[in-house]
Amino acid sequence: MTNTPDRFALLQRLLHWLMAVCIFAMLFIGVGMVSTVAPKYLPLILIHKTLGVALLFLVLMRLALRLYYGAPPLPADLPRATKVGAALSHQALYALMIVMPLLGLGMLWAAAYPVVLYGGIQIPALLPQSDGVHTLLWNAHFYLGFAFFALVLLHLAAGLFHALIRRDGVFEKMALFRLPGRTAP
């Protein structure tokens, strides 16, 4: 960490909001994929795989930026339990943003499905074909997807709590613009 900023760097904020949109899209596309056998299934798979790989690279970039720029401190008057909860939930979000695409890729490799992304980019298999491993990874990807969705909703609720109820500047630290009439952090 190079300093203690009062807001996240612009690149950190842009990546956060870009990834938020992509993650919501991924979650809903994932639900659509497992609930259909219609012809739209294959395009959904292609979008889901491509976004998943893109998100994996973006989260690694975000982690590097977070290490370089640091993160603004939480308000001093925030209860310790809330600060611990915030830290743990952020760690869980980062972990799931890394684990989910890796599980998805591993699941496809274990099923001997070619991982072809938009533009014809193919990712070579790093796992041998195994029905047992495929089932294990599919189940992990499926159920962790629900946990991820719940954690994203909790994160959204916390952001809205800080923006609309506490009005303590926490939301503005990640917002693309400062909200009028808010307390400075």
Helix-strand blueprint:
Elements: H1 10-34, H2 41-69, H3 80-110, E1 115-116, E2 122-123, H4 131-166, H5 170-174
Antiparallel strand pairs: 1-2
Helix pairs in contact: 1-2, 2-3, 3-4
Spell the H/E element sequence: HHHEEHH
Number of helical runs? 5
Report how far apart the termini are: 19 Å
Number of beta strands: 2
Instruction: Tell me which oligomeric state these chains represent.
Output: single chain
The proportion of strand residues reads under 5%
Low-pLDDT stretches are none
Over the alpha carbons, how many angstroms does the gyration radius reach?
19 Å
Spatial strand order of the main sheet: 1-2
Mean pLDDT value? 91
Task: Estimate percent helicity.
Answer: 55-70%
The structural class is mainly alpha
Inertia-based shape: elongated
**Major β-sheet, in short?**
2 strands, antiparallel
